[in-house]
Write a structure and sequence with these properties.
The protein is mainly β and about 280 residues long. It has one domain: Beta Barrel (Porin). The chain has three helices and 16 strands. The protein has a 16-stranded antiparallel β-barrel with strand order 1-2-3-4-5-6-7-8-9-10-11-12-13-14-15-16. The longest helix has 17 residues. The radius of gyration is 21 Å and the shape is globular. The chain starts with a helix and ends with a strand.
Length: about 280
């Protein structure tokens, strides 16, 4: 009996520690977890630059990507603003249930007119299973998916009106299928993950389901991506190495990307410059 209290105390602490990182139900992830952000993040402002020289701090740099994301207390994306020339370009606003899971998204132009409406359906775990897209007649396309070195090719596809999603058991999305208005596959994106949730591969398939581009990633022991390799038709196109600076919560706030771009017909549209990304993170 004399040892029962310490044992019970240890079990209680152990269970509490296990529960502390489980903000979402098993088999589903909120947006903070998908973005691999730590702590109660309220917003992230991210700006990505292409550098004219080797110095990441010099002023002669071109903005490649500029976005603000706001999260609700449940860790789900509430609003995002895509900027162009330091001006608001496209504004996304999400409608969510009491659990924070979104069921609809409206994207607006700076004048307040509607550019896009998306309605989501979820599976029994709360993951997005399907998204139906309704585009305005004079639509603008800002973000279809994550910005990649082959994003310019993705934009050439016929516009899609439906996306379906597949997940592995932990809630990481492994496949996104983009369909046009005739229900034909426009293109497909896939991903693979390791046991720690780090993405090992991401791939882009054309509508005929032939692999077009694939990116492979390597991480350090702290789950920070330190290398990426982009391949086209089994040929290396871009090899990158990354260095970071972090805030007190362990989220990176600056990232240097040193790039080696192979010059050939496949890499004609790829920016050969080194990249520098800075983030401003606000917490609840």
């Amino acid at each position: 009996m004399s040892n029962s209290f310490p044992i019970l105390t240890f079990l209680f602490l152990f269970i509490s520690l296990l529960s502390a990182g489980q903000d979402s139900p098993e088999g589903t992830l909120n947006d903070l977890e998908k973005y691999r952000l730590k702590g109660k993040v309220k917003s992230v402002m991210e700006i990505k630059y292409a550098l004219a020289g080797s110095d990441a701090n010099k002023k002669d740099r071109e903005v490649i990507y500029h976005k603000l994301i706001r999260f609700d207390p449940n860790g789900y994306e509430q609003e995002s603003i895509l900027y162009k020339n330091e001006q608001e370009f496209l504004i996304k606003k999400y409608l969510s249930g009491s659990d924070g899971i979104p069921f609809e998204m409206n994207e607006y132009l700076p004048d307040g007119s509607l550019n896009l409406n998306v309605k989501f359906t979820t599976d029994n775990k709360g993951n997005q299973a399907e998204a139906l897209y309704s585009w305005s007649e004079n639509r603008l396309i800002g973000e279809i998916c994550e910005q990649t070195d082959y994003y310019f090719e993705i934009l050439q596809n016929e516009i899609f009106t439906k996306v379906t999603y597949n997940y592995e058991y932990r809630g990481y999305c492994t496949e996104q299928n983009f369909f046009n208005s005739d229900s034909a596959l426009s293109f497909k994106l896939t991903a693979k993950y390791d046991f720690r949730g780090n993405r090992l591969e991401s791939a882009y398939f054309k509508g005929n389901e032939l692999l077009s581009w694939i990116t492979k990633y390597k991480y350090d022991r702290y789950d920070n991506m330190i290398e990426s390799s982009v391949f086209k038709s089994n040929r290396i196109a871009v090899y990158s190495k990354y260095k970071y600076q972090f805030d007190m919560a362990g989220n990176w706030i600056s990232r240097e990307e040193k790039r080696e771009v192979t010059v050939n017909i496949f890499t004609a549209g790829i920016n050969p410059s080194d990249m520098f990304t800075e983030r401003t993170i606000e917490y609840y």
